[in-house]
Amino acid sequence: MKQTTDFLKMKKNNEKIAMLTAYDYPSAKQAEEANVDVILVGDSLGMVVLGYESTIPVTVDDMIHHAKAVRRGAKNTFIVVDMPFLSYHLSIKDTLLAAGRIIQETGAHAVKLEGADDVLEHIKALTKAGIPVVAHLGLTPQSVNVLGGYKVQGKQAQAALKLIDDAKRCEEAGAFSIVLECVPKQLSLEISNAISIPTIGIGAGINVDGQVLVYHDIIGYGVDRVPKFVKQYHNIHTQIVEGIQSYVTEVKTLAFPEDQHSFTMKEEELKGLYG
Ligand code: KIV
Ligand code: NA
C-alpha cells in the first residue's frame, strides 16, 4: 500500500497518480483490482449513490458507513475520506472529533477538506494530530450555493493568483496533496509548479500530478449526463438495464427458472409426501 510520502515521491519522479472514488464494497474491490493508487470516498456519494441534488445533505455518519464498506473491499489501498458539509467549520475540537471518528471507525488513512482561508487552521490541527489531509481547491461543491453554481474557477487573473496563494498555504498548513477541481489547465500548471505536494486534477487538464474521477462517471453506472471533463470508458448502465429486462421477461414467460436453477426431492420422499 502507498503512503503519503510515496505520493510526494511520485510527483518528484513525474509518475502520475491515479485516484478514483468508491463508495461500497464492490466498487472498492474493483478499484483495488484495477490498481488505482488512491481511493477517495467522496461526498459525491450524496449524488451518485444516495440521489441527492448536491453534496450538502451528506453527514459524517453517511461517510463513515460507506468508508467502512470501502475499507473492507480494498484492504491494500490508501483511502481518503471526504469530510462532509460543515464538519470542519466549527471549532478545531469539533473538526478533530469528526475526523478522528472517520479515521478510527473506518480504518481509512486520510481526510479531504474543501477550501483554504478559515479551513487552513483545521488542516494544520489535523496534520498535527496525525491525520493526513488532502486539500481541495477550485470548484468546491460544498460551497455551490455561494459560488452560484458548478462553474470553472480561477479564469480571471486575480482569482487565479488567489488560488495559487491558497495552494501554497495549504501546503504550508501540512496538506500532503491538493485536489484541483474545474480550473483552467494553465492555472493548474502554475499551481503544480508552485508547490512540492502533488496536485490531483478533476477538470484541471493534463498539467497536474494526478487525476481523479467519479467511479459512476467513468463506467456510466446510473448517471444520465456526465460533465465535460469526464471520459466514459464503458456504459454499464445499459448492460445492467438489459440484464434486468431479460430477467423480467423470463419470469413472465416462464423461461426462468429452468431445471438447473431448481432443487428436487427424491422419489421415495415424494411418496411420503402424498401418504
Ligand atoms: O466527492 C468527490 O467525488 C470529490 C472528487 C470528485 C474530487 O471530491
Ligand atoms: Na467531494
Architecture overview:
- The chain folds into two domains: 4-235, Alpha-Beta Barrel (TIM Barrel), CATH 3.20.20.60; 239-274, no CATH class.
- An eight-stranded parallel barrel has the order 1-2-3-4-5-6-7-8, surrounded by seven helices.
- The chain has helices spanning 4-12, 25-33, 45-48, 60-73, 92-106, 120-128, 144-147, 157-173, 185-194, 215-219, 236-252, 267-274; strands at residues 17-21, 38-41, 78-82, 110-114, 133-138, 177-181, 199-202, 210-213.
- It has twelve helices and eight strands.
- The protein starts with a helix and ends with a helix.
- It is an alpha/beta fold and 275 residues long.
- Helices cover 44% and strands 14% of the residues.
- Helix 4 runs parallel beside helix 5 (92-106), helix 5 crosses helix 6 (120-128) and helix 8 packs parallel to helix 9 (185-194).
- It is elongated, with a radius of gyration of 23 Å.
- 3-methyl-2-oxobutanoic acid (KIV) binds at residues 21, 40, 42-44, 82, 179, 181, 202, 212, 214.
Topology:
Blueprint: H1 4-12, E1 17-21, H2 25-33, E2 38-41, H3 45-48, H4 60-73, E3 78-82, H5 92-106, E4 110-114, H6 120-128, E5 133-138, H7 144-147, H8 157-173, E6 177-181, H9 185-194, E7 199-202, E8 210-213, H10 215-219, H11 236-252, H12 267-274
Parallel strand pairs: 1-2, 1-8, 2-3, 3-4, 4-5, 5-6, 6-7, 7-8
Helix pairs in contact: 2-4, 4-5, 5-6, 6-8, 8-9
This protein binds 3-methyl-2-oxobutanoic acid (KIV) and sodium ion.
The site of sodium ion has 5 residues, from loops.
